[in-house]
Automatic annotation (TrEMBL):
Native organism: Kribbella jiaozuonensis
Annotated GO MF terms: methenyltetrahydrofolate cyclohydrolase activity; methylenetetrahydrofolate dehydrogenase (NADP+) activity
One of the record's GO cellular component terms: cytosol
Stated name of the protein: Bifunctional protein FolD
Positions of the Tetrahydrofolate dehydrogenase/cyclohydrolase NAD(P)-binding domain: 140-278
Designated gene of the protein: folD
Residues spanning the signal sequence: none
Amino acid sequence: MTAELMIGTDLAAEMVAKAAERAAAVQEKYGVQPCLATVLVGDDPASATYVRMKQNRSKKAGIASRSVVLPAETTTEELVAEIRKLSEDPEVHGILLQHPVPAQIDERAAFEAIDPGKDVDGVTMLSFAAMAFGDPGFRSATPGGIMRLLAEYDVPLEGAHAVVIGRSPILGKPAGMLLLASNATVTYAHSRTRDLPELVRTADVVIAAVGKANFVRGDWLKPGAVVVDAGYNEGNVGDVHFEEAAEVARLITPVPGGVGPMTIALLLEQTVDAAEAQLG
Ligand code: NAP
């Protein structure tokens, strides 16, 4: 292996420790603990695990959790009503709707029921617009975490060609917007992109957000490329074939221990930001 690892674990731990200090200061000043509400619909075991991890880390950071669990057959209207209740509840400062929701639900409608001031996972259209225009606002947690990791490893983005593989509203699309705001030249690739390996070979920075194990191969990469693997598939496997890619890349994120911890750290940081803004 020739690539250096871009490890998220330590940076994420530092971010969570700082969020914990700030959460304690909020409690001290206002007598209120910052509170993150999590909404889980259905019984997907992976989603349940992610929500549990977020609640556990919240607890460690002195952030209270409110847990809403709804059955798989929940309708859009029912979910929207639950989220509106949380949006209006002054004791809740941040709201996370675990993605994906069951197929019968209009996920966009559910996301838009989140009060933009409580959108600590950065999923509303308003948050997306803020990311697109380079304005302050909540960042989508995974893309925001990726940007912090790139900054930590001093990855030059200005003028760099970044290829983002995947265009989901929670990951690929906002990741591209944040890279653009950092003056990268951004290309989005998706399921209908032609000659993907050829395109990826032109990238200085590759963001893999596909949801397919070992999808990006070593011979798709330009030597010296920076590779961020946002994927998380069964068996702790990313979207990049790690062993092959690590022989060609300059920097690469491991899975696990790369992007994953950064996502949670940013979520907690933004929950404290939201509490400060609402109480202050
Ligand atoms: P998603 O909503 O399923 O989106 C996948 C994207 O990949 C889509 O834009 C799709 O294109 C594209 N795609 C599918 N097949 C492709 C192909 N053959 N060639 C090029 N593009 C292709 O997934 P997601 O929610 O963005 O998640 C992506 C991955 O990130 C998953 O492994 C997920 O587990 C992981 N993830 C990790 C974190 C974390 O905290 N680390 C957070 C969220 C997600 P179309 O738009 O054309 O369909």
